[in-house]
Amino acid sequence: MDWARIRDSRFGVDRVPALLAQLERRDDADAWQELGLRLVLEDGLVFPAGLAALPQLVSLAPRSAQARGLAGRILERAAGHHACDAQLADCAVTIADFGEVLDRHVRSRPADCFVPPPAPP
Predict the structure, then answer these.
(1) Of 86, 3, 90, nearest to 49 (Cα)?
(2) Which of 10, 20, 55, 116 is deepest in the core (most CB within 10 A)?
(3) In sequence order, which ranges of the chain are alpha helices (DSSP H)?
(4) What span, in angstroms and rounded, lies between the C-alpha atoms of 32 and 111?
(5) How many CB atoms lie within 10 A of CB 75?
(6) What is the model's pTM?
(7) How far is it, in rounded angstroms, from Cα 47 to Cα 35?
(8) Each residue's pLDDT tens digit in the chain (121 positions)?
């Protein structure tokens, strides 16, 4: 990934990869908060850095609720009218991988997830 060409919400190019590297080493609430602010804006915008960070977030997702949440927010906004369509199309494999991670998480019946009972026959 050529991070020197990919901007985040603050038009930075170096902070997102540094935050991702930090979060791969250890969980840090402040780093997750800053990363979220750099990748997604509350008004529905996702930045190219958000889609570029998606593979690393998905690799963290099996063990991190914060990674699952941030990846989900990125994809939710990318699917809207402000998406980077070409870059999103390049994420198809990563999106499928994220779906599998979420399926495994839900099947494990975690305390933080509501799983409805099966429908009656």
Answers:
(1) 3
(2) 20
(3) 15-25, 29-39, 48-60, 65-78, 85-89, 92-107
(4) 21
(5) 22
(6) 0.80
(7) 12
(8) 777 788 888 788 789 999 999 999 999 999 999 999 998 876 677 888 888 999 999 999 999 999 999 999 998 888 765 556 667 777 889 989 999 999 898 888 777 666 567 777 7
**Among residues 21, 109, 29, which one has the least CA distance to residue 59?**
21
In angstroms, how far is CA 112 from the centroid of its own chain?
18
Q: Find where tokens 């305390």 sit.
A: 111
Q: Is 26 exposed, middle or buried (0-12, 13-18, 19+ CB in 10 A)?
A: exposed
pLDDT for position 22: 96
Look at the block and give the residue holding tokens 């902070």.
15
